[in-house]
Amino acid sequence: GSGSDGSGSSNVAAVIKGLDNPFFQAMQSGIQDTADADGVSVTIQAAADIGDTTGQADKLTALAGQDFGCFVVNPISGSNLVQALAPIAAAGKPIVNIDQPIDADAAAAANITPATYIGTDNEAAGGKAGDFVVSKVPAGAKVAIIGGIAGDVTSAARVDGFKAAAGDKLDVIQESAADWKREVALTQATDIIAANPDISAFFAANDDMGLGIVKAVENAGLTGKITVVSVDGNKDALESVKAGGLTATVAQYPYAIGELGLQACQVAVAGGDLPKDIESPTALVTSAEADQAISAFPQPFAPFENPLEGLLSK
Amino acid sequence: MRSFGGQLKQLSFWAENAAPIGLVVLVIVFAILSPTFLTLGNIKAMLVAAAILVILAIGQSFVITTGGIDLSISATMTLGAVGFGLAYTAGLGFWLSAVVAILTGLLIGLINGLLIATGKVTDFIATLGTLSVATGLALIVSNGKPITVTSVELLTLTSGSVWIFGYPIILAAILGVLAWFFMFRTRFGLHVQAVGGNEDSARANGISSTRIRMAVYLISAGLAGVAAILLVARVGAAEPAINTQYLLNSIAAVVLGGVSLTGGKAKIVGPIIGALLLTALTNGLTLLGVSQFYQPLAVGLVVVLAALLTRFQKK
Amino acid sequence: MRSFGGQLKQLSFWAENAAPIGLVVLVIVFAILSPTFLTLGNIKAMLVAAAILVILAIGQSFVITTGGIDLSISATMTLGAVGFGLAYTAGLGFWLSAVVAILTGLLIGLINGLLIATGKVTDFIATLGTLSVATGLALIVSNGKPITVTSVELLTLTSGSVWIFGYPIILAAILGVLAWFFMFRTRFGLHVQAVGGNEDSARANGISSTRIRMAVYLISAGLAGVAAILLVARVGAAEPAINTQYLLNSIAAVVLGGVSLTGGKAKIVGPIIGALLLTALTNGLTLLGVSQFYQPLAVGLVVVLAALLTRFQKK
Amino acid sequence: MIDKYNSRPDIAPFTGSTPATDFILTATDITKSFGGVHALRGASMTMRRGEITALIGDNGAGKSTMVRCLSGIHRPDSGEIVLDGEVVHFESPNAARQQGIETVHQNLALVEDLAVWQNFFLGREKTHGLGPFRTLDRKLMRKTAEEMLQGLAVNVPPVTSKVRRLSGGQRQAVAIARAAGWGSKIVIMDEPTAALGVQETARVENVITTLRDAGVAVLLISHNFDQVMRLSDHVWVMRAGLAVAERRTEETDGDELVALITGAKAA
Amino acid sequence: MIDKYNSRPDIAPFTGSTPATDFILTATDITKSFGGVHALRGASMTMRRGEITALIGDNGAGKSTMVRCLSGIHRPDSGEIVLDGEVVHFESPNAARQQGIETVHQNLALVEDLAVWQNFFLGREKTHGLGPFRTLDRKLMRKTAEEMLQGLAVNVPPVTSKVRRLSGGQRQAVAIARAAGWGSKIVIMDEPTAALGVQETARVENVITTLRDAGVAVLLISHNFDQVMRLSDHVWVMRAGLAVAERRTEETDGDELVALITGAKAA
Ligand SMILES: Nc1ncnc2c1ncn2[C@@H]1O[C@H](COP(=O)(O)OP(=O)(O)OP(=O)(O)O)[C@@H](O)[C@H]1O
Ligand SMILES: Nc1ncnc2c1ncn2[C@@H]1O[C@H](COP(=O)(O)OP(=O)(O)OP(=O)(O)O)[C@@H](O)[C@H]1O
Ligand SMILES: [Mg+2]
Ligand SMILES: [Mg+2]
């Protein structure tokens, strides 16, 4: 289990995904701010970009040799950090897994038992978006899905969740990949609208692409007629929801995930027992909740039971 | 007519005109497969989408004519966009921000020029270095966050149009005409071709290859700055994300346009058509709902086929 | 000693040895700034992390010695990794799957070779095309999903070590020695250098430049296939994501190692040290907690500085 | 032993009966090094008005380097060039041209992918219009180039064809016509007939004498002694970066020149 | 008017008193086109044992193309090459070499970044060992190269220095030594002295006569008539892709050769 039998250092190392995306920047802020507030020393490193699987592993390996008492990791894929984590686990240092879960089989094979997992189920987030779209548009309406880089794990999970929720209630006419980029999503949405003027809704795997789609819808003069839903809950996206651009976004609160991650480390280092899974909050933000969400940003707007508060105060 | 028919049989005819022929073939194929493809709305959208690539391809074409290559072109655009965003947020207004975007671009161009023209560093490595530097700078100054820009002028720029020609493609066309003029009708353009054709001979005739090289990297970077404005206008935000795709596509467009990477042979219309071709390809594939997985394959095949064709060009 | 001191004053000494000197400087700087940097554990970690890049740099070095360039190298590795994953999932076992990975790589190498050696397509464009093609194929065959591979052999491969030398870097070192042997001690290597130095002269002396070019692209792709196995081992899965970083770094490593992109001058040790340098740079910056945003900047500056140095190489 | 002739001012150079004002060009003590290679080590030479001056010497003696110093491609490390009585410093090839020195380089200095007329005017194009929109006066340049080529009576293809399509002899003709066509004071030719056949060589030699007859001073670099004896009025001999001897052509012969070149005979 | 001499079998070629078996090489009706350019249009020529045969002609006459056909670089479109009484078809430069034909090309065919000894053995390196691990026998090759260069008594730098550092004359020496050093039947030299100075030219001419004296048949391409008259035993004249005439050197003179080259005189 999670022991404090390591070096006893209370320093925390965090390795997260690429900072070229606001989602992970918010996560970084969550970790940093909490550390500052609690007087913990933290080193945060990030992958070069969303495809930098080995680079991320290299960075974790570099940190593994240093004097850290606990590691917070957000792997790019289920297994890319497993090799790098093996020596950390062997040294008995606690590992807090956030956002992207480590592949269970791979972890078991390498003798890694994360102290806890904190995150949102990306599939569930996609599902929330799917349910929302189903409720907004008539049955059998045409929808298109724009994913991140083709082959990306997170994107695939969100898209799968959306498709599962859509079931046969929606007609998914197209699925394309816009590399997580606003401009690419804009171009593709423009093309898709041109090919299918009767399209009812778009689902985007992240907010940046969602905002690109909004722009395309705007250019086509169809604002309000086409439903656009994305996942993340970035500031920009919330503003857009408020302004009537995005119809909704499924907020995942990366800031809160980061915060929880750091707190979990504190608990682990102090020798506390952590729950195996901590579900971080997700919330569908529509125009009704937008104001509230913006003022609470980056914290969740809905009351949220932090399971770690009690453990921390001990 | 006979002589034209005879020409058609010549491989070199096809080679010289790989880009326009490819474009025509694509248009015919897509028009048959998708009823939407040739609608005015789609053509308009395609042209607007092509504008940025067209401008980058023009810049790249100047560099490649001197036998160089600008790998930093898309990173420079990113940095320019961030520069625009920061300037606009700081309250400089549209026009001043646009100037900032172009100046930011020119800064990278200046570094490229100094390294390559004065420092005699290989173009490939120098611009690979500035690609990294510009990417880093864009992330640092923007703090890695997209900067949302809402400006009336930007809105006009993206949404305004004359018939099916949106303002971005009109801007690109104007730049294309200017580029053509400077390349083929002025001393400067002749000297660009001369330096690319044979640097030693050009210098023996009193042409400063240093100045010419400096100039082409400035042109390329300046155009990347202009493209940056269009990019911000298009997405409504300045994003520090790297646009590798634009880099590879700008080079592919120039080569599809029949410009040899060894330099010396200038073309402006060719690369523009190359850029349109690449845009039409992605557009058509999206319209047809071709799986995302097959799109890189299709682009790769087109590039390879065109390259196979261009090799039959007359020397 | 005197003559060595005299050498130090020569710019060309620094230029010839940009990579080792840079590596030593980096090691000293990081060792001073971070107590962890020179620990055995960190050195071991760095060496393991460098293995993939070292192997790719060796492959790239063969291609660049002939005056070519292989832009498809990292996409080939990705496709090889996916090939490994599929084969393993299909129950072929580790060794057969490894063979599949290498064969998949060789397939792309064959296409490159056919296009460039036989089809006389410019290397830059041909490999840009196959970069797209390989990426597309990797996505298609994997259906865009990572293929998790858990195999005892892979685990041994990543975690086994002899003192501070992990198996991956040992494999890379063996390949380096073989590469050095073939490049500098066999007819083949001499012919690679001859074709890169002066293709016409080489042909007039009876060397088949077609066969040599074909061979170097096959070597580069085959090594990318080997690197693919290490990649799968390291990541624990075969992922269809493109590793653009590896492409640019493999070229940068070769150039840092003192190989000119114009071809004709072979080096094997230099590129390997270049790869170690780049890895040490990222490792050190990570240890020092330098922000992600500053890392591309640092890499860019190192590449540009090294390039400025290498230009003082003796001809 | 190299006789460092030019560094000994006590020995008056051989000038025959020519008064000093008849020197159109005097180069004195020119040095030029490339890294460790001392290509010119204090070479001096003169050219007389209306004469063909030959410059001979073994491979690597420094002839081409001297030519490049005179035509503004290299800047000498030290030494003085006096043109028409005035000390000149050429900052660029164009500066030398503007002062009336035209050069046909050993490598011809043509750009293969450009048309004949473009090569003809390379570096000094005619333009019309104003400011950045000054356009090339293509018509004027084509016409002028055509006239100049025809004036030299060399059989050349249309001026709009690319140099790449020209044969070796035709290229040489373009390069020579370009140098000859500008009403210059001095035309320098660095081995203009090295790769030419009999007919082409005869034509070029004809151009050279025509230039002389028109009052142009010609500097001819050549390894062909017959040609030197046939064409030149005066010969300078270089050896290892120095001008080691000069002779009036009529007062010397091939054997003496060989002896001077190889150093078998001192100046 | 081109006299298509070789396509008229009724006119016996001028062979003097040489019996047919004394021809070491006979090329008959060779044609070779590049796209639209007919470089060779049915050229024939012969070479005799132990003689220096000169091949002359204007620029673009097809001399170098003929040489490239004889040395296996180009494959003729049609025509027959008979070497030592046997019809040969060279698939590659190495095939020609193996049959005993060595060539010094107009561009020397050296690789600048390789050492002298590497250039010396380029394409036919000595190796020891087995299979893919057959290694270069560097020691043997260095020693052999050094001996061969010294045997020709040419002043060359160490065989380990790169060709890039060699002067023009030294390079020529390496290329010639390479061709001369293989105990071959025929050595072809395409303008071997075009860019050389007096001393270097003398050395090369010496090598050529040494080869002849050793019984090697030499084919010499040259624009220099003096050289041709001085060295060769027999002269072939090419014009516009055809061999238009042949002469015993002692029975002709420079003026006649010029007339034959320009077409002023028919064969
Ligand atoms: N740019 C340069 N860099 C280095 N060395 C040079 C350069 N130009 C000339 N040299 C060297 O200077 C010396 C003189 O060369 P130069 O070309 O002037 O000789 P040359 O008399 O013209 O010979 P040739 O008859 O072969 O043309 C040679 O040793 C040459 O290698
Ligand atoms: N590879 C080639 N491709 C196209 N044309 C060629 C090629 N090689 C030679 N030619 C053409 O064939 C003709 C004969 O050329 P070749 O080099 O044999 O002439 P040459 O007699 O050697 O002339 P020179 O005295 O100038 O060396 C020329 O018109 C030349 O342009
Ligand atoms: Mg010279
Ligand atoms: Mg020839």
TrEMBL record, chains B, C:
GO MF: transmembrane transporter activity
Transmembrane segments: 12-33, 45-64, 71-88, 94-117, 124-142, 162-183, 215-237, 243-261, 268-287, 293-312
Pfam family, one: BPD_transp_2
Cell compartment(s), UniProt: Cell membrane
Keywords, comma-separated and alphabetical: Cell membrane, Membrane, Transmembrane, Transmembrane helix
Keyword Nucleotidyltransferase carried by entry: no
Keyword Ion transport attributed: no
Identification of the protein by name: ABC transporter permease
Organism of derivation: Cnuibacter physcomitrellae
From TrEMBL, chains D, E:
SMART domains membership: AAA
GO molecular function: ATP binding; ATP hydrolysis activity
Pfam families: ABC_tran
Keywords: ATP-binding, Nucleotide-binding
Gene3D superfamilies for the chain: P-loop containing nucleotide triphosphate hydrolases
Coiled coil (UniProt feature): none
Record-linked PANTHER family: CARBOHYDRATE TRANSPORT ATP-BINDING PROTEIN MG119-RELATED (PTHR43790), SUGAR ABC TRANSPORTER ATP-BINDING PROTEIN (PTHR43790:SF8)
Protein name: ABC transporter ATP-binding protein
Species name: Cnuibacter physcomitrellae
